[in-house]
From TrEMBL:
Gene Ontology biological process: mitochondrial electron transport, ubiquinol to cytochrome c
The protein's assembly and partners: Component of the ubiquinol-cytochrome c oxidoreductase (cytochrome b-c1 complex, complex III, CIII), a multisubunit enzyme composed of 3 respiratory subunits cytochrome b, cytochrome c1 and Rieske protein, 2 core protein subunits, and additional low-molecular weight protein subunits. The complex exists as an obligatory dimer and forms supercomplexes (SCs) in the inner mitochondrial membrane with cytochrome c oxidase (complex IV, CIV).
Keywords annotated in UniProt: Electron transport, Membrane, Mitochondrion, Mitochondrion inner membrane, Respiratory chain, Transmembrane, Transmembrane helix, Transport
Source organism: Colletotrichum siamense
Annotated Gene Ontology cellular component terms: mitochondrial inner membrane; respiratory chain complex III
Family: Belongs to the UQCRQ/QCR8 family.
Function: Component of the ubiquinol-cytochrome c oxidoreductase, a multisubunit transmembrane complex that is part of the mitochondrial electron transport chain which drives oxidative phosphorylation. The complex plays an important role in the uptake of multiple carbon sources present in different host niches.
Protein's recorded name: Cytochrome b-c1 complex subunit 8
Bilayer topology: Single-pass membrane protein
Pfam families on file: UcrQ
Keyword Lipoprotein annotated: no
Length: 88
């Protein structure tokens, strides 16, 4: 069985030759591309633990300072009640 004419049709010029880099579908008569390659790396990949120790200390302090007001008053009240009960 022989492929049809549509399946055999392809780019008129091989991709990568004669200044055609986009292929037949993207080659719409515009300016020809010529091997533009860029490489990049995300900032978190360069140094993933940058500032981790510094941020950990201040984050622990921030979390402690925000939660101490929920824990300390009941503990102080409980201690005072126990102290009062023992003295009585």
């Amino acid at each position: 069985m022989r492929p049809t004419h549509v399946l055999q049709s392809g780019p008129h010029v091989p991709v990568g030759k004669y200044g055609v880099w986009k292929g037949w579908w993207g080659n719409i008569g515009g300016q020809k591309q010529s091997g533009i390659i860029t490489y990049g790396i995300a900032p978190n990949r360069l140094n993933p633990l940058a500032g981790a120790a510094h941020n950990a200390v201040f984050n622990v302090w921030r979390r402690f300072a925000s939660q101490v007001w929920y824990v300390a008053p009941p503990m102080v009240a409980g201690w005072y009640v126990m102290y009062w009960a023992e003295e009585r």
